[in-house]
Structures are given as structure tokens and as C-alpha cells.
């Protein structure tokens, strides 16, 4: 944002010096290279300053504040998911009063959860889950070492063929 203000000050300065729009555009693009404002924006600000506008700040906009990612809303979403892991994003959005996009981004980004088989689960394993996986793997390894035919008794597959 500060870089945009700097560019507007420069545009105002070049306009006051009597430079043309073309010279102003060339100077801004030379000075700021890749971070330069677009040509249309430079022309728009140049014309504003030519029409006796003195403010370099943008006009205040009337938009509603973004309150959907506040700590209070995130806590509400988290409580809903912990109460019922099968709750839908649409249901969360309706109860909390936010958009479905906001509800989805809170779940995936802020709470670090993903949807698995129609319920939300944390993306990261807990310490207990990691320990359990190590124990099971160690048991399988011990069974394989003690009985070489043990691996022949294991059936593998997924639920899609059932």
C-alpha cells in the first residue's frame, strides 16, 4: 500500500511540473519497474491531480468489514465440528452466519482439518496416534521376523472393490 502512495505522490509531482501523461507513465515505470501501477491507473490519478484533486489517498469505500475470520467465529466453527464431526459446511455457514467459502477456509486453513469419508478430521496425527502406529508396525515386523510365512496370511485391498 505504501508503494502505491509513493507512486501517487510521484504522479502528482510530475503533473505539477507540467509533464505529459506519456512522460509520467514512462517515469513511473522506470522508477518502479515491475511494481509500477498499471497505465490506466496512472492516467486516472494524473487526471485527478489535473482536475485540482489534492488527496493522494484513495476515497473511503463503503464495504462491510470482514468479520468472518475473527477468533470468535473460528472458535464457534471449531466447537460445532468437535460436537459433530459429520456436520456439513453449509450447516456451519448457516448457524454461524458466514458464507460457505468462509466456513470452508476456516476449517481447512485456520483449524487445519480436512474432510474424510463425510466427517472432518485433523490433518496432523496426535502423539498417541503416532505412538500407536509405531507399536503396530513394530508388532508386524516382529511377527514377520519370527514367522517368515506370516506375510502370506495378510490380505490387502481397499473398500472400492467390495
Automatic annotation (TrEMBL):
Domain Mos1 transposase HTH: 8-50
InterPro entries: Mos1_HTH, RNaseH_sf, Transposase-MT_Hybrid
Pfam families for this protein: HTH_48
Record PANTHER family: MARINER MOS1 TRANSPOSASE-LIKE PROTEIN (PTHR46060)
Protein name: Histone-lysine N-methyltransferase SETMAR-like
Amino acid at each position: 500500500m505504501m508503494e502505491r502512495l509513493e507512486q501517487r505522490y510521484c504522479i502528482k509531482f510530475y503533473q505539477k511540473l507540467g509533464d505529459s501523461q506519456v512522460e509520467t507513465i514512462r517515469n513511473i515505470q522506470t522508477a518502479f519497474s515491475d511494481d509500477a501501477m498499471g497505465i490506466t491507473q496512472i492516467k486516472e490519478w494524473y487526471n485527478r491531480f489535473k482536475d485540482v484533486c489534492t488527496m493522494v489517498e484513495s476515497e473511503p469505500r463503503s464495504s462491510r468489514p470482514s468479520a468472518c475470520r475473527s477468533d470468535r467465529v473460528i472458535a464457534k466453527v471449531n466447537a460445532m465440528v468437535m460436537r459433530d464431526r459429520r456436520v456439513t459446511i453449509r450447516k456451519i455457514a448457516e448457524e454461524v452466519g458466514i458464507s460457505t467459502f468462509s466456513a470452508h477456509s476456516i476449517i481447512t486453513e485456520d483449524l487445519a482439518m480436512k474432510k474424510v469419508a463425510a466427517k472432518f478430521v485433523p490433518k496432523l496425527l496426535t502423539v498417541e496416534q503416532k505412538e500407536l502406529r509405531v507399536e503396530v508396525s513394530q508388532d508386524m515386523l516382529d511377527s514377520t521376523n519370527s514367522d517368515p510365512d506370516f506375510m502370506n496370511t495378510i490380505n490387502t485391498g481397499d473398500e472400492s472393490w467390495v
